[in-house]
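Risk register update: the risk of archive-format incompatibility is retired. Evidence:
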Amino acid sequence: MNKERQNSLRELPSVDTLLKTSASETLITRYGHDVVTNALRDTLSKIREEIINDKSAKLKATAESSILTVTEKELASKQQPRLKRVVNAAGIILHTGMGRAVMSPVVAKSLSQLTGCCNIQMDLKTGARVKREHCIRDLVCELTGAEEALLVNNNAAATLLVLSALATNREVIVSRGELIEIGGSFRLPDIMSQSGAKLKEVGSTNKTHARDYENAISSETALLLKVHKSNYEINGFTKEVTIDEIAAIGKKHKIPVVDDLGCGALVNLEQYGLGHEMTVRESLANGADLALFSTDKLIGGPQGGLIVGRGDLLAKIRKDPLYRAFRVGKMTLAALEATLRLFRAPELLPQYHPVYAMLAKSLDEIKIQAEDVADKISNEKPDWQVTVAKTSSRLGGGALPGSSIPSYAVQISATSESVNDISLKMRNADVPIVSHITDDSVLLDMRTVSAEEIEDIINACRNSD
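Archived output:
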């Protein structure tokens, strides 16, 4: 090591010296003594390493002001939340990587009132303790036709809880073609095993008949389970037993029938140009004793899993120890209550619910928006090739896997930089923009972009150098 670098190391101030400066005192007031002390140590360690490797900054590394400035920036950076608002321009309406459904603004208003105490398990008229779901129970029953409802933290938990409460050490009959695997390699047979229930497969991968259920029933049968194939399709030479057929068999043998719907549609999706997805009300009306479904997909609320149906079965499920482990808190309940109220006027959903606003967006409206955004980006980035292209959006979130929704996107490419670099810069913007890449172009699908988010996209492009 040469003499100049040795002198630079000797000139570095100590942590104690830096802590006595007014700038450090200000940082300590904001972040705390130990946090600032450790941050200063980290900064000095990095500077020593740069000096030793002869990579010191142009600014005088040993200056107290430089060290404190670097430390302040690092502290501010670490203080930023890891979860942040992003713009979904990927064209997937229920994008799992971005929190699935965009919730309605009414949810934020509801949550803002509940940071303090609330009557989560108290009847304000009598002062008596009540069930945790009392705030949503009537709404859920009104919207689904159920006798009773119970809420847990996701639909996988709902499935596990039902199996544990109603079928431990007994058989559950399910079609082999419905042994689904959901995200994260989470498989129905694994859930079945964890619950203590015994899986009894019937039929084949592509064909299951009503007689398969009939022939499999024994004195050990606790439940007949139907699982909707919400994230895949089987086409060709196929046969599936409908919920009303299974319900008739269950009624004949006095065995409860459970319909694991997955997505949880509360309204018919055909009105939005999509295929039919069985609604919760249809499932119960067709004879299911219990229906299970997510609250953060087609309902567009917070993550949760609802169990609805017969009151006597739900009373038994509520007594299972797993219910306490899976139950939700006040913020989830409040967010779901606010969301469910929107479904009381389904014709107004496109006006107040972002998910249904995206679905209802006309092609003409999307094209006009895409042309406007393309013009603005071209003005900011004249070296980019920016056009408007037809594309297809998807519902996502494990709902209607074969669905394709026509849309328009802003298509971006450049000779001076790769599309991967453009996409990365957009994701690293102050408000990250998530796009998708196809045919050597970055696509910004306008179906999933609201008018209020256009300025975020323009700012991301403007500052992408």
